[in-house]
């Protein structure tokens, strides 16, 4: 039996509270002595789970008891979008199907008709299982995997005051490398020995893509047990070598804190987390990172280093918890995609914060609403603002002035730089 599959089975059993964490060492020892054994069969033979639970762990029943009918229209749209090399497909009222190619949103083609609010509502009713409809009703949006092929598309369904919209994130056909993203410098994050590293960015800004490339770099260059927690496996993993325990939140439908605790119970040397988390889970992540002393890399759906720091400070307020954050946090990398000057594609502008000792001292007492002292500590050499990255991209001719100026954070200093006698040497 594949040891990686057995680890997945044990993690799911712990998350669903069918197996106590205290019994994991004994179960692992038994599986090591019986290399052909299946973990689900062993748990059933020991009387820990029943036969129905064994079937569920072995994956012999559908992960959705409520199998929904697939609308051929959606599948046709996805097929056409993939053929055009699109990264996203959007089905919204009063528009024909839209796709994003090379960073630009455009129509799928002249032959596709305009969708009505009633049509998008019918698509939602046909695609969305009842439990996801409850989520949609409660929070205004729901995210789930779509399709049978692996890796599957990620579907996000949302609702505004009058209608529904559907957005599909198409799976990547090939693994992504840092060099191909033009972000080889980010590889330094993969070499950090321990502590918490955050990759931040807004929706659709490439943080999951960068995270996947960093995960591949870590997988190739680091030793030890690697556990990858994802909302949905978007990126293929076509690499020989050391196995990785890969767990998708979308398959478990369990409380995130329980899943996170189960992942740490697997005794990883490196934990990679690519899923949206609330402040409670963020606090747990910091605490478990400090307790275990492993490298944890996580994504946050926030637009900047400042926003990420503010959220971390809010999750870990003053006192012992803030001290824990200071000792645990290593770096924050934030990125934003900017259209290329050619109009074909986008390039990432980044800002990087390193938690050096001087910054840690400022962070210990910082008010979440005023973080300037943290960013300016020790002369600010530990913080590389996004404006510097935008300026370099502009100087290299990769992006246009308007694209850089609209995204810079300090426009008065940007204007000073533009009007300096030798702009390339200012700042």
From TrEMBL:
| Alphabetized GO MF terms | ATP hydrolysis activity
Q: Which InterPro entries match?
A: P-loop_NTPase, T2SS/T4SS_dom, T4SS_GSP_E_ATPase
Give all residue intervals belonging to the Bacterial type II secretion system protein E domain: 187-341
Q: Name one Pfam family in it.
A: T2SSE
User: Which domain of life does the UniProt lineage start with?
Assistant: Bacteria
- Spell out the family assignment given in the record's similarity comment: Belongs to the GSP E family.
The protein's name: Twitching mobility protein
